[in-house]
């Protein structure tokens, strides 16, 4: 029992770390993507970024072994027309604020997925922040085209 | 003083006279004898959903005639669209599941406005993740333009700094009845329940 408890604790901590990647001031949660076929030209990445520090930060780029490139896009709807544009300056995360990249808004576009993404698996992704540097996260793969992750709110 | 009151009284008469005249003229041209004849304003009278000539994601040449006999849902998008188009295709898949066997009594079409990159093979790969009843359609620049015109769909190719491009496009899902007449739209901001109700009423319409 004496040896089991620290082991369990370490395991729990590791799990918590995997679910909520943290790099001092920047915490990433609700990281998810949607299932795509092997020859789909694009996939998506959604995340929630929380800046608990006192300095502004900025998500400037990202990469994943599961896609040729990752771009940061904004999505706007104007008078019934959908317009998607790259955000060359990335996503600003002001101090004390939470920024959500989600369906119908700012998102990561995974350009040229290198394989099929199947529901239930996990995809590793590295985020680069101006101040916080590299943050590794795992995207959980949800059903194709779903509007929210299965475990939203947890 | 008296002259002043007289002037104010005449002013009042002028204002009232103008009001009476404006109201009667207004009545004449809106509801009265000079009004436009009432026209049918139901969705079926709107000229949305005309002829098209495209290729499906299995490489088969198709026209609107291939999709007669069943009501259809149609929306326009492109495959280099990671966010909005998958959301709509995901909504369609969820609606197909909710309708059960009834979903087979509808046609489900996804028309690409990206004539250059979206070949039938690209569409097939993109649609693999969704319900197999959704049919992808693509075509030449001219054929896509004709299809978009038939549905009054706006789309535009937007060059990007890196040399690539993206597409702007109308967001709505169009509903046509079994005679190919326009029967309304589903907006992607509407709830699943509302969309389902619209499809059920489309299935019972004659």
Automatic annotation (TrEMBL), chain A:
Query: Which residues lie in coiled coils?
Result: none
Keyword annotations for this protein, in alphabetical order, are: Signal
Keyword Signal attached: yes
Spell out the SUPFAM superfamilies in the cross-references.
DR1885-like metal-binding protein (SSF110087)
Q: Do you know which InterPro entries this protein is assigned to?
A: LpqE-like, Lxx211020-like, PCuAC_sf
Give the Pfam families listed for this entry.
PCuAC
The UniProt record lists the keyword Signal: yes
Superkingdom, according to UniProt?
Bacteria
Q: Please list which residues make up the signal peptide.
A: 1-21
The identity of this protein, by name, is: Copper chaperone PCu(A)C
Q: What is the lineage of its organism?
A: Bacteria, Pseudomonadati, Pseudomonadota, Alphaproteobacteria, Acetobacterales
Automatic annotation (TrEMBL), chain B:
UniProt similarity note:
Belongs to the SCO1/2 family.
State the PANTHER family in the record: ELECTRON TRANSPORT PROTIN SCO1/SENC FAMILY MEMBER (PTHR12151), LINALOOL DEHYDRATASE_ISOMERASE DOMAIN-CONTAINING PROTEIN (PTHR12151:SF25)
On the tree of life, the source organism's domain of life is: Bacteria
**Which residue stretches, if any, does this entry annotate as coiled coil?**
none
Question: Which InterPro entries would you find in this protein's record?
Answer: SCO1/SenC, Thioredoxin-like_sf
**A Pfam family recorded for this sequence:** SCO1-SenC
Protein name per Swiss-Prot or TrEMBL = SCO family protein
